[in-house]
Structures are given as C-alpha cells and as structure tokens.
Design brief:
The complex is a heterodimer of chains A (about 240) and B (about 230). With about 240 residues, chain A is α/β, with parallel strands linked by helices. Chain A has 7 helices and 11 strands. Chain A has helices at about 45-50, 70-80, 95-105, 110-125, 140-150, 170-185, 195-200; strands at about 5-15, 15-30, 30-35, 60-65, 65-70, 80-85, 155-160, 190, 205-210, 215-220, 225-230. In chain A, helix 3 crosses helix 4 and helix 5 packs parallel to helix 6 (about 170-185). The radius of gyration of chain A is 18 Å and the shape is globular. Chain B has helices at about 1-15, 20-55, 60-70, 75-85, 100-125, 130-135, 140-150, 155-170, 170-180, 190-200, 200-230. Chain B has one domain (about 20-230): MetI-like fold, CATH 1.10.3720.10. Chain B is mostly helical and about 230 residues long. The interface of A and B includes residues 53 and 105 of A.
Chain lengths: ~240, ~230
C-alpha cells in the first residue's frame, strides 16, 4: 500500500523532556490508522505535529514527491490535512455557518457554500440541526458536525484525537458510521483512541505509542485484511 | 437646595436650547476621545493577542508593565507629554502642545495600557482550540485572529468601553496638554472644572449630565450585548 505522507525523524521536547522520538511514520493512502498509547504518551502531540499545528524540534516530511523540513512542508500539509480535537471546537455561530467556515476561507461564494453545506448536512443526517446554535449541541452532535465541517473541505488526511471519548454508545456508533463513510470515500484517517474495540473494525492498521516511539500492532495486508504483527519498533 | 434646582433647570434649558458653545465642547470631547480609542484599539488588540498566545522573552514583564500603567494617574501622563511636547522638549518642534492632537495623543497613552490589559485577559481566557480549529480549517493567521476576536467579542467590547470611559472623563491630561482653550481644546471635563470655579453651575451640570447619560448608555449597551451572548452560550 502506497503511503500518502511520510514523516521522518520526528522529535519534540516539551519542558525539557523528550516526548517523541520517531524514526519514521508512514501514513498509508485511503486507510484508517488507529493510534493507541497511555495517557500522556504523546498521541495528541504527534497528531498536532502531523497536522502542522505544533512545531517539532526536528521532522522531515515527504509529501507529493518532495522531501521538506517540517516548517517548509507546513503550508502543504495544512492544506490537505485536518485535525479534530478530542472535544471539537465549534465557533459561536449556527451549525450551517460552522460547516461553511472553511469554504468561505477558501473563497467560495455564499450561494455555492450554502449549497455545499446543505449537501454535507444531508450526508451526515444533520439537516435538522442546520440553524441551531453550535454551542447548544451535545458532545456527539458536535463531533459529527466537526467531521462534516472537515469533510466539506475534501481533506486527504483526517486526524482525529479520541473522537469517541465521553460519548454514549449511540453517539459513538453514529460517529464511527461517519468515519466509515469517509474512509469509503477515499479519505485517509488516523485517529487516536483508547476504545480499540469500537474503532478496530474501521482501522486497517494499529500503531502503539510507547516511550515516545511507535510500534506496529496490526497491519493490513495488500488484500486489505488485517493481520497481527510482532511489535516492531519504529517501522512504517 | 433651591440654587441646585435652579441650576439643574438652567442646565436642561442650556442643553435643549442648542447653545453653540456647549455643543461645541461636547463634540470636541467626543471627537478627541473617539479618535484616541479608534487609533489605540487595533494596536492594543494585536499586542494583547501576541501576549496571550505566544511565548517570548520578557513576556511576563511586559504584561506586568501594562497592568501597572493601567493605574497611572492621568495627570502624570499629562505632565510627561507636556515635557515631551513643550518648546524645549524632544518633540517641541512639532508644535503640538495645546492642540486637540496633543489631547488625542495623551488619551491614547492613557487608554492603551487599559485596552491591552483587558483585551489580554479576554484572549487569555479564549479557548486555544478556537485558534487551532481556524488554522486547521484553512484560515490564514490574520483571518484566524479575527475569528478569535469574534469568539471573545464580549470581553473585547467591555475593554473598549472601559477605555473610552477612562479617557472621556479624564481631566488631568487634557488640561495639561490641551490648555482648556475655548473653541480649540476645551472638552467636557475641563469645561466643568472651569465653569464650576466661576460659579456657573448650570453649564457644569449640563455637561455632567451628558457624561452621565453617555456612561449609562454605554453600560446598558454592553449589558444588553453580553446578555445576548449568555443566551446563546
């Protein structure tokens, strides 16, 4: 399976302590990667570095045939990669305006954005929430609105930090359904989660973060089936 | 008591009879204070945002300095500016002393620390995820800054109103660098001080009422605005 983006020599020190020290991380195209690790193991830090939101001490990015230092790669990765917080932040506006936010930034006209927003809401079965204040939504609804807001921008890679944390089982199921549909549309996904039993059926790969290093737990075969692997330190 | 009632009655008559001198003082006062706030606010907001969102050497010292300058008496600012703008001062050649421009500069110096300190507190309380979300959704940093300002708009408006309230009612700085010159630099506070010292209470009370109405209107406006925000939250 070809990789969408490769990160090499990722290292970051926070408050003088080494948090991550990863030789190579390859994100496969059109696959879902599950990232696990204990609290404080650096999952969020890794996802934020990958999305261009957090500057690492060192990192080289191989993307679209270019080998670039993280700083130079940042504009490219921010264009195609979207990061979703554990508890997504929705702006103080209606659900429809939240979903349109990225479209307006991309220079879409109001009528074109409105049309796309309505389609996206329909895709996520959220049409009934279009005019509700985003601040009044439940945690599960917020997560689904955030996923829809990301999807409308057609990202190549979606990074989700604990997308099903603090949700009831119904909300978890609906969020997983949206992620499954995103994956089937060809969006690469990488998500961190403690709830492996919920995410495992979507995930093609399973990486585990421990002591700042990545270990493979499971990897998809070329046929798409998932097989267990012995733990291999720092291999893509 | 009768004197006070008579003076208040005269004040109303003055206000509503369209007394040119009185309304000239009012318009100059508002013009100077609005100009000062209009100039100071954009710079103060950017500095407040940088102080809240970025780490750099002497950041905490700068925050402490702005907090300290917030409570510097207006007359000290006026004295400093007087020395700078007076003939023998470093900017004496600009001949700004006793002009409304000098009053605007003085009021900028007065309002700036207050605007920075209060806006900093608002940005500090902002959710960092708002900034990160705007960036990850493709907003340029300048656009993300406006998005963040919208998210903390209630605090920022309260800061601007407080800044305006501080400068529109100050007397020390305006008196020192403006000189209280009729038809040129006489504003509401300096006019009240002058009229009261002459025993002309009616004009003083009329101008005082304008300030009071302004203050009440601003506070009511902010309360209504913040109330709407609470309902949405």
């Amino acid at each position: 399976m070809s990789s969408l983006i490769d990160y090499k020599n990722i290292s970051i020190f926070l408050s003088g302590h080494s948090v991550l020290n990863i030789d190579h991380l390859a994100v496969p195209a059109h696959q879902c990667t599950l990232l696990t690790g204990k609290n404080g193991s650096g999952k969020t830090t890794l996802l934020k570095i990958m999305s261009g939101l957090l500057k690492p001490n060192s990192c080289t990015v191989h993307y679209q045939g270019l080998d670039l230092p993280w700083k130079q790669a940042k504009p490219y990765i921010q264009k195609d990669i979207i990061y979703l917080h554990q508890q997504p932040y929705l702006f103080d506006a209606s659900v429809a305006d939240n979903i349109a936010y990225g479209l307006y930034r991309a220079g879409e006209s109001k009528s074109a954005a409105h049309h796309k927003v309505m389609q996206a809401l329909d895709w996520a079965n959220l049409t009934h929430l279009a005019h509700r204040s985003a601040k009044q939504l439940s945690g599960g609804e917020k997560q689904r609105v955030a996923v829809t807001r990301a999807r409308i921008l057609s990202p190549r890679l979606l990074l989700l930090d604990e997308p099903t944390a603090s949700m009831d089982s119904d909300a978890k199921q609906q969020t997983c359904l949206l992620l499954q549909r995103l994956k089937s549309e060809g969006v690469s996904i990488m998500l961190s989660s403690h709830e492996t039993h919920i995410i495992e059926h979507i995930a093609d790969r399973h990486l585990h973060l421990e002591n700042g290093s990545l270990k493979h737990i499971k990897q998809a075969t070329t046929s798409g089936k998932v097989t267990s692997l012995n733990t291999i330190k720092n291999t893509p | 008591m009768n004197d006070l009632s008579q003076a208040s009655l005269n004040a109303f008559q003055l206000l509503f009879s369209g007394n040119d001198d009185l309304w000239e003082v009012i318009s100059l006062s508002f013009g100077v204070s609005f100009s000062a706030i209009l100039i100071a606010t954009p710079f103060a907001l950017v500095i407040a945002f940088i102080l809240a969102f970025f780490q750099f050497p002497f950041r905490r010292t700068l925050i402490s300095l702005f907090n300290t300058f917030m409570s510097v008496p207006a007359v000290i600012i006026g004295l400093t500016l007087y020395l700078i703008l007076s003939r023998s001062g470093p900017l004496g050649d600009l001949r700004l002393l006793f002009t409304s421009k000098a009053m605007v500069i003085g009021q900028i110096m007065l309002s700036f620390p207050l605007l920075v300190a209060m806006a900093h507190a608002s940005f500090q309380s902002a959710d960092r995820r708002a900034w990160e979300t705007a960036i990850t959704l493709g907003a340029a940093p300048s656009r993300a800054f406006f998005t963040l300002m919208y998210e903390v708009r209630f605090g920022l408006i309260a800061a601007i109103v407080a800044g305006f309230g501080r400068v529109v009612a100050e007397i020390g700085c305006s008196m020192m660098v403006g000189g209280n010159i009729l038809h040129s630099t006489r504003n509401i506070p300096t006019a009240i001080a002058l009229e009261t010292s002459k025993g002309e209470f009616a004009q003083g009370i009329a101008l005082g009422m304008v300030l009071l109405v302004l203050s009440l209107s601003l506070n009511a406006g902010v309360s209504i605005f913040q109330g709407k925000g609470e309902l949405q939250a």
